[in-house]
Amino acid sequence: MAKEKLSIGEVSKPRFEFRTFGRDFDEAAYLMSRLSVPVPKKVWERYSEEIYILSKTNDVNNTKIRDGKMDIKTFVQEVDGLEQWNPLMKGEFPIKAEVLKNEVFPAFKVDMPALEKDEYTLEEFLQIIKDHPDLQAVNVEKERYGYMVNDTICEYAVVYINGASVVTVNSESTELDDIKKTIKDLDIEGVENINYLQAIKRVIGWIDNPLAN
Predict the structure, then answer these.
(1) Which residues contact 46 (CB under 8 A, 6 or more apart)?
(2) DSSP letter string over 8-61?
(3) Which of 56, 108, 184, 213 could potentially form a cystine with 134 if both were Cys, beta carbons 3.0 to 4.6 Å apart?
(4) Inside any domain, residue 4
(5) What is the DSSP secondary structure assignment for residue 202, as one 8-state letter?
(6) Residue range of the domain that includes 57
């Protein structure tokens, strides 16, 4: 079967991903920039401000809010150390209480708070999160630089997690072998695969493990 040709910013079948976080991936970033084929100008540099909703009881659903929209992805499987995530739901604020009850809070896997209104603004939703003992909103700023290496979508990014600066590199594709080759070419074989949920929980002290370096 022929491989799927990936394009940055376009929808494909579900991808696998290697990502890691630490203090220094300058060498990998340099190799990424030199090995990359030309990519669209819109992905050369991107900046975003996002809010991740962390749950003490959940590591399989990744919830973030950007530009007033909520995006939840769910973990599907791990193959050869690479993770596959699929979209679970998308929502927009103000958001209906019914959506919070039936989709959002079940994804957090926590006790359901009392909802007394028919819909909630972003500010009201964040107050519910603040008041919940098992949930926490974390501000995440990203400076992302996009590349394409071995037909995998790659990124080097400076990430601020509640103001704490870390860096991340990743490679994602529908093809496992292409990601493995990229990991080797970027000289990051043996580096721990750390997704955003894990990285944020380590930075805020919910997981007692360091980042990759």
Answers:
(1) 142, 143, 144, 145, 146
(2) TTS--SPPEEEEEEES--HHHHHHHHHHPPP--GGGTSEEEEEEEEEETT-SSE
(3) 56
(4) no
(5) H
(6) 22-204
Q: What is the CATH number of the domain that holds 186?
A: 2.40.320
The angle formed by the CA atoms of residues 14, 64 and 74, to the nearest 5 degrees, is 35
The amino acid that residue 31 corresponds to is L
Number of domains making up the chain: 1
Residues 6+ apart with CB under 8 A from 149: 32, 35, 36, 37, 171, 182, 185, 186
Backbone angles phi, psi at 170, to 5 degrees: -150, 165
Q: Does residue 77 lie within any of the structural domains?
A: yes
Provide the residue count of the chain. 213
Distances (CA, A) of 28 to 96, 127, 169, 210: 43, 40, 8, 19
Residue 209 counted as domain residue: no
Residue type, 10: E
Question: Coil, strand, or helix at residue 188?
Answer: coil
Question: Using CA atoms, how far apart are residues 180 and 127, in angstroms rounded to an integer?
Answer: 42
**Within a domain: residue 11?**
no
The answer to whether the predicted template modeling score (pTM) of the entire model surpasses 0.85 is: yes
